[in-house]
Write a structure and sequence with these properties.
Layout lengths: L1 H12 L2 H13 L9 H17 L5 H12 L12 H15 L4 H12 L3 E3 L4 E3 L4 H10 L8 H12 L3 H14 L5 H27 L11 H14 L5 H16 L1 E9 L5 E8 L8 E4 L3 H9 L3 E3 L11 H5 L8 E8 L3 E11 L7 H67 L6 H27 L13 E4 H18 L3 E5 L6 E4 L1 H17 L6 E9 L2 E8 L40 H11 L5 E5 L3 E9 L6
Parallel strand pairs: 10-12
Antiparallel strand pairs: 1-2, 3-4, 3-8, 4-5, 6-7, 7-8, 9-11, 12-13, 13-15, 14-15
Helix pairs in contact: 1-3, 2-3, 2-4, 3-4, 3-7, 3-10, 4-6, 4-7, 5-6, 6-7, 9-10, 11-12, 11-15, 12-15, 15-16, 17-18, 18-19
Length: 637
């Protein structure tokens, strides 16, 4: 019989409809599902064929049973409970697409899959078959109850459900005691195995009851299950990402009994991590950044796997930079899990530090953190999408208003030098003007007008080099001091003319970075130019460079007029200038003078091409600060 079963299995598994379903399960099922898997569906397919062949079912019914087995768990891709109707719907779609099955046959497969759904009775949830083929699929789905691999499969299901062993196996005993096979084949082939497994299970469950405390057994205890059951309500209570994350991880820290919990999120470039939403520990570490491959958290993100260590200092992946910076916090144990959205897109990691239990973090803590992380990642992603949509809506309204204003600005920028050129040209062309001093003055005026037009043309032309994905970097390793010297020399005179205090804070030891020196010079000069134009005479401007956690931080801070909150999201758009674009004055470094609104757009494009992003903080009437980070390379020149 085994040869016949193998023949049917190989033949039916290669049918395009069944092969496609199994392939979909293999590629799209969440890796968090340890029991429900493509392997399980293949196991059910083989088992249903065994029962059907034993009882003499053949031909078309055998094929329909195989389709039901292949599709019965496909709904787990989208939902982990009440998903049978999804499997039935996908089976119908596939069968209709093949054009090889009648409506009655399609309906039989649908009914068969729907029979696997739990039905709540007055006593307990059970599965009630409504069709003959449904009985075979149900028996096959539970075939491991009577097989030698019962305990192996049970453990996979327990981990998937996240239930502690004592609770899970106590209920498993009751289930196995009450279970009855629905087909003659299952009774004959699995009945004796069920009785044997039940005897072993009773002994094992007794050992668990009399064994060590539940915390040492792995799985989730009742308090953890209650916490997870309330978590969706907590995470859906706000669409403000910061508030949501801070509240959620503070609850988690209390449930797991840990000193601190943090969230690390990948930035837009996915090359840096933002140390975010710290709860417990040293609050001054909030919003720190480090390279995305640094430390245990970097390894977790790169490998999309959890790490639990109660001796982090002996782990070569451990990064001690934050401990060294802290005045009192010392990392003693780490539990770090990846933040995966729908098990596909990784957005960062959740890290829990220093268990307050004497035996440190345990398997149950990791299981809870992983389940918490899945829900947290989805909530963060949803909140982020909401925030982006709101910002986009506001930006579109602002930019639509600015569209007409920028035509006026461009016209002004062109008209001013053209009027100067025309006036000077008219005087030079007038034969009555013979005074050489006047003619020299008009000639110089003409040259300034032309130079201004040339500069305007260069501004527009240079935008093509620093626009989005088309930025062409000429990377080389160079000392930061070299870049700062060039920038400082460029602004010594404008600062002196405007009576601005210009402070440059540099690292104590030499630092080198790898990047496009010319474009980074453009970034700093554009940021300083904006600071000069929007800071009143007598104000202060500070350029700071410092090394921290493998990154070189650049910041330009001023005591200027600041940026309104509602305009912060628009300032990096091309041709956007803060303030009223219709009240526009020319001048390179005069207070309040306007430009084309291309500087910050170029800044963002260049910084993003270097794998970073620009962070802006500003308060109206008090000033602004623009900062970004570049990875540090070898020290020296």
């Amino acid at each position: 019989m085994e040869e016949e079963i193998q023949h049917h299995f190989e033949h039916l598994s290669e049918m395009p409809l069944i092969r496609g379903a199994l392939r979909t399960l293999e590629t799209q099922l969440s890796p968090d599902l340890s029991y429900h898997s493509a392997e399980h569906s293949q196991d059910v397919l083989r088992e249903v064929l065994r029962f059907a062949v034993h009882d003499g079912i053949s031909g078309r019914d055998l094929e329909l049973l195989a389709i039901g087995a292949a599709f019965h768990d496909i709904g787990f891709i989208w939902k982990q409970v009440d998903n049978e109707w999804l499997g039935a719907s996908r089976a119908r779609e596939a069968m209709e697409l093949s054009s090889s099955y009648s409506e009655s046959e399609i309906q039989r497969v649908q009914d068969m899959i729907l029979d696997t759904q739990l039905v709540n009775t007055s006593m307990v949830a059970v599965q009630i078959p409504s069709t003959e083929l449904g009985r075979y699929l149900l028996d096959a789905d539970l075939g491991n109850l009577g097989r030698p691999d019962f305990f192996e499969k049970s453990e996979l299901l327990r981990k998937e459900l996240g239930i502690a062993r004592p609770l899970f196996y106590r209920d498993a005993v009751k289930f196995l005691e009450a279970h009855e096979w629905l087909t003659p084949a299952a009774q004959a082939l699995r009945g004796a195995g069920q009785a044997e497994n039940l005897t072993k299970l009773r002994d094992y469950e007794k050992t668990l009851r009399e064994g060590p405390p539940e915390r040492d057994l792995g799985g989730l205890d009742l308090s953890h299950l209650l916490f997870l059951s309330r978590l969706p309500l907590l995470l859906n209570s706000s669409l403000h990402t910061d508030r949501l994350v801070e509240t959620a991880i503070e609850h988690l820290r209390g449930v797991i009994n840990a000193e601190a919990a943090t969230v690390f999120l990948l930035d837009e470039s996915r090359s840096q991590l933002r140390f975010w939403a710290l709860q417990g520990g040293e609050a001054h570490l909030q919003d720190k950044r480090l390279p995305a491959d640094r430390g245990i958290v970097g390894w977790v993100i790169q490998n999309e796997q959890s790490v639990l260590t109660n001796d982090p200092k002996s782990d070569p992946r451990f990064y001690s930079g934050f401990d060294e910076e802290s005045s009192s916090f010392v990392t003693k144990s780490i539990l770090c899990v990846p933040l995966l959205v729908r098990s596909k897109k990784i957005i960062g990691a959740l890290q829990i530090l220093n268990s307050t239990e004497s035996d440190g973090f345990q398997e149950g803590d990791q299981l809870l953190a992983e389940r918490f992380g899945h829900q947290l990642a989805l909530a963060i992603d949803n909140a982020t999408l909401f925030e982006k949509s709101e910002k986009m809506r506001n930006n579109l309204a602002q930019l639509d208003k600015r569209k007409g204003e920028m035509i006026t600005v461009l016209t002004h920028e062109l008209r001013t030098p053209l009027n100067v050129i025309l006036g000077a040209a008219d005087l030079l062309g007038n034969p009555d003007v013979k005074d050489s001093a006047i003619r020299e003055k008009m000639s110089a005026t003409l040259q300034r007008g032309v130079q201004r037009l040339v500069k305007l043309s260069q501004q527009l032309q240079s935008l093509s080099r620093v626009e989005g994905d088309t930025v062409h970097l000429q990377r080389k390793t160079f000392p930061v001091e070299q870049l700062l010297t060039s920038v400082t020399e460029r602004f010594e005179n404008p600062m002196r003319v405007r009576n601005l205090t210009f402070t440059v804070n540099t690292p104590k030891s030499p630092i080198s970075i790898q990047g496009d020196e010319a474009l980074l010079f453009l970034v700093l000069t554009n940021l300083l130019s904006n600071a000069v134009r929007f800071t009143k005479d007598g104000g202060e401007i500070t350029l700071t460079v410092k090394q921290e956690h493998g990154l070189v931080h650049f910041s330009v801070e001023d005591t200027g007029i600041g940026i309104p909150r509602e305009e912060l999201e628009n300032i990096f758009e091309k041709f956007y200038e803060v303030g009223d674009a219709l009240v526009h004055s020319s001048g390179e470094y005069d207070f309040g003078s306007g430009g084309l609104g291309l500087g910050l757009s170029a800044v963002r494009s260049v910084v993003q091409a270097h794998g970073s992003d620009v962070v802006v903080t500003s308060e109206e009437g008090k000033g602004s600060c623009f900062s970004f980070q570049i990875p540090e390379t070898a020290t020296g020149g």
